[in-house]
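ugh ok fine here u go
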Amino acid sequence: MTDQQHPVPTGRRLDLLADCSACFGLCCVALAFAKSADFAADKNAGTPCRNLQADHRCGIHTELRQRGYQGCTVFDCFGAGQKVSRHTFGGRGWREDRDTARQMFETFPVMRQLHELLWYLAEAMELPKARPVHAELRRTYDDVEELTGRDAAALIAADVPGIRAGANELLLRASELTRKGLPGKRRNHRGADLIGARLRGADLRGANLRGAYLIAADLSGADLREADLIGADLRDADLRGADLTGALFLTQPQLDAAKGDSATRLGPGMVRPAHW
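structure:
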């Protein structure tokens, strides 16, 4: 769905890049969305988007923002679409069989959550200071990866919240180890309501911003180096001139949802969104 270029990760995360050419347009069918600032029309889950073409491609891909589908440009399945299309269902499309379609639409959101989790686990294993938990991270990664290779019934029945909770404890430990010893006071804004907050030029280096609501927050010129941004909502956040080098668990969709400029500093593998 995204209209941005993908970052170029290394190692295990190479397998978690979305390849729309190998997918049956699942994000444009399986998911529901409501008419809002992010979507120009309502769409029920399991109903093809009116812009989806017969070849499973988006008919307005290059004009999504202009046509009112900004929400599509900040979505990333982390490779779940092609995994479900080509592996779980062996290339059988949802258009050919109603039962296949039903199972496929149920499986896709599960696979998407698992692939996103794999992305975070892979990143954590690349953090040098998190070495004490690398072995546990690797075991968890392998367990989740094994689950993604099972059939649709097993995926649909999987206890995803439980899996995420266990992995999250490891990710938090990796984050704490990485942020430990950084200069200055490390702020804890985990899950905080910072919608529209004035944080211009704020020293947030090494801060815990996990799950924080930073919608439309002014973070221009802020120091976000080594800040933990897993799950932080950065929609319309002002990142102009901010320093995001080394930010932990920052994803491309988060950047795509925010506002920035040529002065925004990004870490390796992150791509400056085209609309900045």
